[in-house]
């Protein structure tokens, strides 16, 4: 029996009427609909026509309800199972608070050039904060698994969709001034610190987000306990220079095959409607070049503990380009980890468990 989903809008709510059977394989589709279709509206799941729920899917239903999703017409046996699931989770949390599930929230604020969408995976027992700056053309929702892993090891995790990306305002993938993006990121850091009583903050930046994070560290390094750069767009990027030299930039999007050795990653990227799939925009590339020059001529990281992660087979941001850029930035506490044959998205690579383990260990080390 398949699951059928019908969407309607009632006042300030988006109602998803479900019929059939809810299984684990359906949860990713429901989560995607929450992200894309709801904007800032409340979410209601009408379960009147649900015939059966896979027991393995109950934990997600229980978590969604805690996050504010309303379950209407929930069959009595499903409600009883959810109560049992929560009771078991509460016992587990009392025994080991580091395994607390994230309270997942989506909000927004008025940024430098428009509304900026923000996600928070909040851990009530957090010992440290992590803020993530995502890469070019993508959105913070692609870091769900990263956030959940870090929550399980004691973090609360926050991250924006940058201007022109994901659910934030602005023309898609257009950034005229990355200093404004750095300002927006600083606002997110302040939100995280205010929400969690001034816990230490570690900033993670991937690809273009690594460039943004490096610039943030130059401007606001005192706010950070640590910096993690994943495949950072630093140094002289030949691809940027080659594109800017063209009289007209061709309509050629990023090839999903260069992201990861796991083909499923590229397939999900290609089908994600919140990912930008168009050509590079000249103003964005010019702004990127300007920011790289500012970073290159700016201060180093000093005493800020920094972890650099890169794959040897990264064709989007070659490792040697980043190495050149980091040579002028690296400070007194600098750790480098390279992964043989790994491609651009290390958090989505076939050895992602190893990479995320390195990230978790670094966060624990610098926030003690």
Concise overview:
By secondary structure, this protein is α/β, with parallel strands linked by helices. The protein has helices spanning 24-37, 58-66, 76-95, 144-152, 178-195, 208-220, 238-245, 263-271, 282-297, 319-327, 352-366, and strands spanning 3-10, 13-22, 42-53, 70-72, 103-110, 115-122, 128-133, 155-160, 201-206, 226-230, 306-311, 334-339.
Write the layout of secondary structure elements.
Layout: E1 3-10, E2 13-22, H1 24-37, E3 42-53, H2 58-66, E4 70-72, H3 76-95, E5 103-110, E6 115-122, E7 128-133, H4 144-152, E8 155-160, H5 178-195, E9 201-206, H6 208-220, E10 226-230, H7 238-245, H8 263-271, H9 282-297, E11 306-311, H10 319-327, E12 334-339, H11 352-366
Parallel strand pairs: 2-3, 3-4, 7-8, 7-9, 9-10, 10-11, 11-12
Antiparallel strand pairs: 1-2, 5-6, 6-8
Output the keywords.
alpha/beta, Rossmann fold, 368 residues, four-stranded mixed β-sheet, single chain, Transcription Regulator spoIIAA, eight-stranded mixed β-sheet
What is the total domain count? Answer: 2
CATH class of the largest domain: Alpha Beta
**Helix-strand makeup class:** alpha/beta
Shape: globular
